[in-house]
Amino acid sequence: MKLRGIDFGNVLGASGVQGFFGEGYWFHKVWSLFGLNFARMTFVAKTATLLPRKGNMLLTQHYTPRNPFPGCVKARPLRGVMLNSVGLSNPGLGALLGTGNWQKRTEPFLLSIMSLTDTPKKRMEELRLMVEIIGFVKDSFSAPFGLQINLSCPNTRHNPHELIGESAKVLEIADILGVPIMPKYSIASAPVQAIRELNDHPSCDAICVSNTLPFGWQGVDWQSVWGSKTSPLAKLGGGGLSGKTLRPLVCEWIARLRDAGFTKPINGGGGILCSKDVEHYHDVGASSVFLGSVAVLRPWRVEAIINQANNLNWR
Fold it and tell me: Which segments constitute the Dihydroorotate dehydrogenase catalytic domain (predicted)?
């Protein structure tokens, strides 16, 4: 998938699947002995906000999870699903840039940012500040990078429909950076016809879909999928679902978007737990895929999935 002449490859990581800087998580080191390998997958940083955000996951001084088994993440590997309510825990964009780690990367990658304030006007002001901060240090980056703008996180207590309506303004603000821009959506809150309109927006290089599905979303039979209609993360807002349940839902959404006339690149993901799942995304018109929950639920399959994605000719 090439955006503005930059080759981001056929398979991306989901935002944060390798942490803020690509360092990964403690269990990645264990599973690397049994085949876990992220080589040939484009790095996408964990989402940053303008100001430090405590969220629901305590971080170390190196911005990695303090608890090896955080209470804001629940996994059911046998069912192939997991929930998280991390809540965008991060030290703020300035602190992350201040480490210099992103600037040292030598291969194309994507930063991920999100504005969190409670009104559209304030969100646009916050986004402008984040864009200015990135622009200030842009020339110090060793590798070309793109910007993934999260307009879909289920754990931030915003009205997602408000955020979708702000897409055009967000794109105009971010375009000043002169880098590829990829807004990220959830099928739970992004109407196909609304996203279709972005096809004509000059600052939209591609879209990414889908973020997790908020627990309780009416498009999922929660008793069947999770084994309960009550989220184990109810005290943390319910959390967002990832895993195998998403794949047919996201693929169907992408197919409808293509049928509606959307021709720009689509980075599709959700529920990719085996190589065959990649083919489903390919067949419905995705331009690339991203991998997330598989690194927790089926880590030994990651390398084969990446190889399969790189063996296909994408739209």
Answer: 2-308
